[in-house]
Structure prediction request, 275 residues.
Amino acid sequence: MEVILSEEQKQKIERLKNIIGELGSLAVGFSGGVDSTFLLYIAHEVLGERVIAVTEKDASVPEREFDEAKVFCEKYGIRHIVCTVDMLKVEQYRNNSPDRCYYCKHRIFSEIKNIAGENGISYVAEGSNVDDMGDYRPGMKAVSELSVKSPLREAGLTKADIRIISKALGLPTWNKPSYACLASRFVYGEEITEKKLRMIDSAERFLIELGFLEERVRLHGNIARIEVPSRDIPRLVSDGIREEVYRKFKDIGFSFVTVDMYGYRLGSMNETLGM
Prediction:
């Protein structure tokens, strides 16, 4: 079915293209998610070979996300550079302080800026949209300090805009659930380790295989707290599925497995900050 864009959305697209065009060349921090995929696609359409995609690969990035980012760049002929930053060596990140995201973004985008410079690229961009301004996001401070561009926000694009336009463009991510890095699954103050990141990745991958496409596995010590949309909770706790999930999570290494009765929502760990 044909997607009809509003005049406002068409104007936002033109505004975005103008913003990107004025930059001349661009390195996009590319996670493979809805926003960065849309930004990269438009940037490649406007700048061609003067755009590169840079993806950070470490234990906090689900393997499936990295694979999808790689496939997208191969499909559209976009130069893709992979960088590895060992954030577990950064104390504030490893100890999971409330401003963990600041140290992570600062380190990663500093590396992307270095890669951009080495490749003759003038600017670096990230994929936050207008809606991202409403949550606690210390990483945006790092983006500002490093003069990283945010073209989607500058053009006034919301998440809904991006999904609708992505669908019109035929992008495979238009209805992709939102995913954050695996470090966001830890309660603040819980030490982040590679083993725990792998446990969370395995647990979430298993839920996805069972058909729970919107999900989070939050870590509280040795307890796994599963979030799925409220409509999916009855299926999750039905006898067959419940027992299968419990056995799998125990095999992965969790001592206890719980279900959040409120259901899935973005940034639930921020609720402990009293904001």
Notes: The longest helix spans residues 100-118. Residues 23 and 123 are 7 Å apart (CA to CA). The mean pLDDT is 94. The chain has eleven helices and seven strands.
